[in-house]
């Protein structure tokens, strides 16, 4: 198939999923055309059957707000016409689904029928999409898509609850490349970050308010105070024994830096900024923290689990579909720093529990969310949508 993929190219789960999906589809002999305003973050190498088309927004003194959705629609039309695409797959409804539906209408007028598949990812449904300034258009674009998928069952239910959507929504969960996200020895980091073989807690996010990153600092502070030096270590019983690595950047980073300074723990926290490849860091972690206020799936937690890292997360959104309480980690009430600290301490201060959870995390990631299992679900869904459209065209002709 020849597939056009549109996503947000910057840091963020939907862009990562879209890019990894495109790369996997290209490896499975499909021709993939990314259509976005910038090169997607993880589209970091040239490969056969992978193409990138940049959307350029022409500015004009009259435009206070450059009309990106229109420029994207025009680019989609152009790429479908010249590359003979079979299908457009857009990730995150705003404005991608709207542009794709409009592009489809323009192309329909030329006798080209290109179905649109929309994947709902997160705040396009749970937050931004519900704002009155977007809602009617989001609702229309979902209903007008030829196929709609969501990344968790919870998100599917939320969509039905908050929007007038009658069409079927297929749940296709996020995925991870088990061969790439693997556990490795900590050796190369030992001197630089944990010279005394301290445990490593990791958090990866875009530091937006919804990620509640200051809670990561507070939980980590609680762990330091409790102390996690293993038995037999000369410092056993003392405070410390753990370091925190923070990957990513965004609005709350400064707040987190200030909080770490205020608590006097800045020397135990490393702010690494935007890092790729993230698997190098996850592969040496002992615990992953995700205290989010809203999370439709939690891709970063899945990537950690694939590296055999137990997860302490909030018990919200799609997270319980990923992180199994008491097996792959713990689920705690939203904002309950004490509970998250106790859960984290329980895992990293107890070697046998840690081992058990690490192995359960890896098993769950590989048995349920391996790329080899999920990508064929997208292929089958594309085929289903294309068959349905072909039948509908036949019916009209007959
Ligand atoms: O919706 C967002 O706020 C951003 C979105 C993204 O595009 O980065 O994240 C969502 O999509 C990810 C990939 O499907 C999920 O793993 C995240 O849980 C989800 N984020 C939220 O729901 C906050």
Written overview of the protein:
By secondary structure, the chain is an alpha/beta fold. It has 2 domains: 2-175 and 371-397, Glycogen Phosphorylase B (Rossmann fold); 187-368, Glycogen Phosphorylase B (Rossmann fold, 3-Layer(aba) Sandwich). 42% of the residues lie in helices and 15% in strands. It is built from 15 helices and 13 strands. The chain has helices at 13-27, 68-83, 96-108, 123-126, 135-144, 153-162, 187-190, 213-226, 253-262, 279-282, 299-306, 319-322, 337-348, 351-368, 371-397, and strands at residues 2-6, 31-36, 50-54, 87-91, 116-120, 147-150, 170-171, 199-204, 242-247, 269-273, 287-290, 311-314, 329-332. The strands form 2 sheets. The protein has a 7-stranded parallel sheet, with helices on both faces. The chain has a 6-stranded parallel sheet with strand order 10-9-8-11-12-13, sandwiched between helices. The longest helix is centred in the C-terminal third of the chain and has 27 residues, at 371-397. The protein is elongated. The protein starts with a strand and ends with a helix. Ligand GMT binds at residues 8, 12-14, 17, 92, 121-123, 126, 151, 174, 210, 294-299.
């Amino acid at each position: 198939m020849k597939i056009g993929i549109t996503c947000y190219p910057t840091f963020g789960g939907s862009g990562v999923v879209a890019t990894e999906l495109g790369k996997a589809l290209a490896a499975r002999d499909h021709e993939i055309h990314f259509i976005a305003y910038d090169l997607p973050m993880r589209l970091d190498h040239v490969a056969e059957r992978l193409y990138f088309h940049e959307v350029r927004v022409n500015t004009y003194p009259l435009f206070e707000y450059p009309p990106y959705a229109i420029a994207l629609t025009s680019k989609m039309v152009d790429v479908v016409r010249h590359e003979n695409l079979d299908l457009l797959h857009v990730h995150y409804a705003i404005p991608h689904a709207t542009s794709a539906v409009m592009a489809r209408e323009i192309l329909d007028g030329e006798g080209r029928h290109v179905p649109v598949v929309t994947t709902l990812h997160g705040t396009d449904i749970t937050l931004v999409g519900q704002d009155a300034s977007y809602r009617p258009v989001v609702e229309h674009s979902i209903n007008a898509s030829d196929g709609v998928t969501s990344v968790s069952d919870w998100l599917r239910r939320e969509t039905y609850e908050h929007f007038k959507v009658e069409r079927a929504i297929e749940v296709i969960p996020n995925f991870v490349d088990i061969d790439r996200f693997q556990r490795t020895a900590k050796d190369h980091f030992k001197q630089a970050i944990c010279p005394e073989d301290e445990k490593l807690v990791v958090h990866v996010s875009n530091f937006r308010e919804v990620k509640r990153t200051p809670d990561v600092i507070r939980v980590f502070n609680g762990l330091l105070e409790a102390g996690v030096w293993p038995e037999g270590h000369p410092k056993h019983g003392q405070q410390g024994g753990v370091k925190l690595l923070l990957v990513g950047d965004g609005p709350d980073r400064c707040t987190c830096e200030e909080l770490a300074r205020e608590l006097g723990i800045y020397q135990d926290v490393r702010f690494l900024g935007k890092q790729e490849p993230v698997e190098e860091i996850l592969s040496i972690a002992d615990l992953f923290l995700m205290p989010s206020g809203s999370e439709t799936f939690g891709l970063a937690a899945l990537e950690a689990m694939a590296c055999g890292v137990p997860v302490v997360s909030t018990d919200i959104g799609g997270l319980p579909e990923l992180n199994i309480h008491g097996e792959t980690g713990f689920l705690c009430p939203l904002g309950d720093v004490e509970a998250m600290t106790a859960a984290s301490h329980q895992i990293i201060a107890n070697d046998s529990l840690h081992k058990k959870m690490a192995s359960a995390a890896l098993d769950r990631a590989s048995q349920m969310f391996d790329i080899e299992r999920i990508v064929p679900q997208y292929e089958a869904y594309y085929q289903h949508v294309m068959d349905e459209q072909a039948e509908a065209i036949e019916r009209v002709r007959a």
